[in-house]
Amino acid sequence: MNSRPSHSTEKQNIPVRRLVVLPFRKSLEISFQSIRVRFFRSVITTMSLVLAVSFLSFIRVGNDIANGFLAAEDPGLRQALIRSGYDLAPEDTRADTSPKQRWLVFLSLLVCVVGIINAQLMAVTERFREIGTMKCLGALDRFVLRLFLLEAGMQGLAGAGIGALAGGIFALINSLIRFGSVTLTHMSAGDFFASVLLSTGVGCLLSLIGVLYPAMVAARMQPVEAMRAEQ
Length: 231
Known about the structure:
mainly alpha
């Protein structure tokens, strides 16, 4: 007697495609729309990053200007730097960041990261139902994690870019007020843009670090718990 495989056995042999992977462009679009919907909250979250990166850029560009003065080997410019507060020994050929400035930069960046973590945790709380809906529709943990990282990356790039450029410009204006037009003749454009780009990179990195833990919390959330959360 010939036995034919049952219908259930045939189904088991057929590979089931139950994972739908959205393209990166679609994830980027969803993240951008989320920022637009929460624009003012995003601006408030980004402001701490703008201020911290602006301070970092201000210090770096200020040192670049001072190093340009020292490279000219003009005693008058060296004395002008000393009078303006730079602690320079007679043999110094570069102006380094003082320990006090390093601590101030470190503390400002630390406060910035803590603020980003706090704001992102609040954002996760407000988006319980949204996260639960995505999970119920089949969104994987890595998809939710990707959305939060993309949002943080876009906010970080915008905030850090604005802060770095503003800090560099303020440093130039401050130097022009203190030293006059000699600033423009001894300031290297390459050093200026290098400091601005470095400050922007640091800001983007801080933004991603600050959102990492909240993003992992959101990604590991169970759909049922998220949907039952009260808004």
